[in-house]
Task: inverse folding
């Protein structure tokens, strides 16, 4: 698998450094073989040029799998089907190419995996990345999903799953009026 150092975009916005601990179990993520996922939600305020990180976190793969196993089977299958049918492989040639070249992050996160929209054309998006210790991996991740695709995915989820995602966000991402307004009912954490 190809990898690089952790790019700036996937460092913690809050600290400017790599994420140190799993948001759920507090495991040390800096150990060389510790496998973990990073997610960030970013929003552009209308009328402003600035981008704002709405939330960010890293969780170890064990916690991610544990959480996913608690979601309803129907929701997980719907999401998998959505990704299988909506991702246009021909638009993501770099992602699926076997090569020794150093991967270019912008090929992965500047356009929505589903809609192909450029991040500059959208109001909000989420980025996902995967690391092992201090290595940033190029496999199924990294990718970017725009707000429009997030809406579509949320519509596939059962009420029970949406409640569970809300519960996760409330517990681990903290109560934030901004989060409530922005992602209520369609949080894609851990998916
Ligand atoms: Zn964990």
Result:
């Amino acid at each position: 698998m190809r990898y690089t150092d952790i790019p700036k975009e996937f460092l913690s916005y809050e600290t400017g450094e790599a994420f140190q601990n799993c948001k759920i179990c507090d495991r040390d993520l800096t150990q060389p073989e510790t496998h973990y996922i990073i997610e960030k939600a970013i929003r552009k305020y209308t009328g402003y040029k600035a981008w704002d990180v709405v939330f960010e976190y890293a969780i170890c793969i064990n916690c991610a799998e544990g959480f996913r196993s608690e979601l309803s089977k129907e929701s997980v299958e719907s999401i998998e089907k959505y990704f299988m049918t909506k991702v246009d492989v021909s638009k993501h040639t770099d992602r699926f190419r076997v090569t020794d070249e150093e991967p270019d992050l912008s090929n992965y996160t500047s356009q929505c995996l589903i809609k192909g929209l450029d991040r500059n054309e959208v109001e909000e998006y989420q980025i996902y990345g995967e690391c092992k210790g201090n290595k940033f991996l190029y496999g199924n991740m990294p990718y970017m999903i725009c707000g429009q695709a997030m809406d579509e995915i949320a519509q596939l989820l059962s009420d029970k799953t949406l409640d569970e995602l809300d519960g996760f966000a409330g517990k681990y991402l903290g109560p934030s009026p901004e989060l409530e307004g922005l992602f209520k009912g369609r949080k894609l954490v851990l998916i």
Residues 112 and 145 are 5 Å apart (CA to CA). Residues 22, 24-25, 27, 59-60, 62-63 surround zinc ion (CB under 6 Å). Residues 2-183 form one domain.
